[in-house]
Write a structure and sequence with these properties.
GO molecular function, one term: NADH dehydrogenase (ubiquinone) activity
Main location: membrane
Largest sheet: none
Keywords: Membrane, Transmembrane, Transmembrane helix
Number of domains: 2
Mean pLDDT: 85
Helix content: over 70%
Shape: globular
Strand content: under 5%
Low-confidence stretches: 3-8, 280-287
Distance between the termini: 50 Å
Number of strands: 0
Protein name: Proton-conducting membrane transporter
InterPro entries: ND/Mrp_TM, NU5C-like, Proton_antipo_N
Number of helices: 19
């Protein structure tokens, strides 16, 4: 028995990151299973669905607890294969089959990337234990290659551009499958980077690359989300955007903040998918935009207050000159977006209500980040970086994009220029699922 326990501890390592993610996955899986009992009532493949779901949760538990590189690689492959099987719930439906095939191709590519990264790390360190690898001081040019392969594996798993097509093409999956996909496995890229954070934090150039690809994906996902005509496509692009912000936080060296983002996104996105059937329509554009200068100025003040509350609740200085400042900048934008509809509404005491909302929202987000930081503190993966030109450029780009969406409204009397219309069509086409995963006629839907 002692030998069995020794062998187990050599294969697995249960730390605070593992426990946090297992708790998240278990809660989401139980919620989805409860929903699926009603959703799949009478479905002839109901039993198979629950067997695959249980197997998927088990392999995800193995993945987040794996310490041996082969266990990590095997559980990574099996969990993604089970997800593809869940996507193929309606086997006779050709569009669903093509979605599953597209996902498998993407996951196979990610498997190759992860395998290459682990092979390089094994060759450099001579260790098969992930914890032993992380404990070593590695100085090798091969470390850069391993880090790049880790990033590519994370990008394929989390549907970052240009590996996003499998996610936007998975919309014909049953709603419970979409929920477990968007709330669970798509977050695997964030987990992978957080697990290997001690290797990445010593390489500022790699962190800059991680930050850049995250910001690009976040901007594209946000823009594409505004172009969609149905709720599931909008949610898919939203997930892509949120994964971009999560990976960007890893690039800032703020891995605990990325894990906190991962947790809240998982909970919120599973709720959105499970409740998507009750959404009769979504209001895409507020026709009363742009806001007045007075309303926007008030909202900006409340956004600054939200950012200050975020800073205070995380226990950090407000104007500290490292990458935590970028996170406070995002909290400020979120505070403005939260306060603006309240200010422009007709509620009594709306200014006080907006103020209280900004304080509560900023504090809640800050406390959640601080809580995850305290939980993961023994791992030593919070390593804020020095601000550089990439961070300032990204902040400027986000600001311009945000203000453009807020205030730039085409005139009804003036026709849009041809180049703008062409760009819009190009962006719209780029955001669409693969043609083979679309059911063009209802007669092609096999149930």
């Amino acid at each position: 028995m002692r030998q069995i326990l020794t062998d187990f501890t050599n294969l697995f390592h249960v730390d605070r990151l593992s426990l946090l993610l297992m708790g998240l996955v278990a809660f989401v899986a139980i919620s989805i299973a409860s929903f699926s009992i009603r959703y799949l009532k009478g479905d002839r493949r109901q039993k198979t669905f629950f067997v695959n779901l249980l197997a998927l949760v088990t392999t995800v538990f193995m993945m987040v607890c794996a310490d041996h590189i082969l266990i990590l690689l095997l559980s990574w492959a099996v969990s993604n294969t089970l997800l593809a099987r869940l996507m193929l719930h309606k086997r006779e439906w050709e569009a669903a089959r093509q979605s599953s095939i597209l996902a498998i191709k993407n996951f196979a590519l990610g498997f190759v990337f992860l395998g290459a990264a682990l092979a390089i790390l094994y060759n450099v360190t001579g260790e098969t234990s992930i914890q032993a690898m992380l404990a070593k001081s590695i100085e090798s040019k091969w470390l850069i290659a391993a880090s790049i392969f880790l990033l590519l594996a994370a990008m394929t798993q989390s549907a970052l551009w240009p590996f996003h097509r499998w996610l936007t093409s998975s919309l014909n999956s049953p709603t419970p499958v979409s929920a477990i996909m968007h709330a669970g496995l798509v977050n695997g890229g964030g987990f992978l980077l957080a697990r290997f954070a001690p290797i990445l934090t010593g390489q500022p150039a790699i962190l800059n690359v991680i930050f850049i690809v995250g910001i690009i994906t976040a901007l594209l996902g946000t823009l594409w989300k505004l172009m969609q005509s149905d709720i599931k496509r909008m949610l898919a692009c939203s997930t892509m955007s949120q994964m971009g912000f999560m990976i960007a936080q890893c690039g800032l060296g703020l891995f605990p903040a990325a894990v906190a983002h991962l947790c809240w996104h998982g909970l919120f996105k599973s709720y959105l998918f499970l409740s998507s059937g009750s959404a009769a329509k979504e209001k895409r554009i507020d026709l009363d935009y742009p806001p007045s200068v007075k309303d926007f100025s008030l909202a900006l003040i409340y956004g600054i207050i939200a950012a200050c509350m975020f800073s205070l609740s995380t226990g950090k200085q407000i104007l500290v000159m490292d990458t935590t400042l970028f996170l406070k900048f995002l909290a400020m934008i979120a505070g403005v977006q939260f306060a603006l509809p309240i200010i422009r509404g007709n509620a009594k005491g709306k200014l006080l209500l907006a103020l209280l909302g900004a304080i509560v929202a900023g504090s809640f987000y800050g406390f959640s980040v601080r809580l995850v930081e305290s939980v993961l503190e023994p791992l030593g993966i919070s390593m804020p970086q020095q601000l550089n030109v990439f961070h300032f450029f990204a902040a400027a780009l986000l600001t311009v994009s945000w203000l453009a969406m807020m205030f730039a409204r085409p005139s009804k009397q003036t026709a849009n220029p041809e180049w703008l219309l062409k760009k819009y069509v190009q962006m719209l086409n780029a955001s669409q699922p693969h043609p083979s995963t679309i059911t063009a006629h209802r007669n092609k839907y096999q149930f």
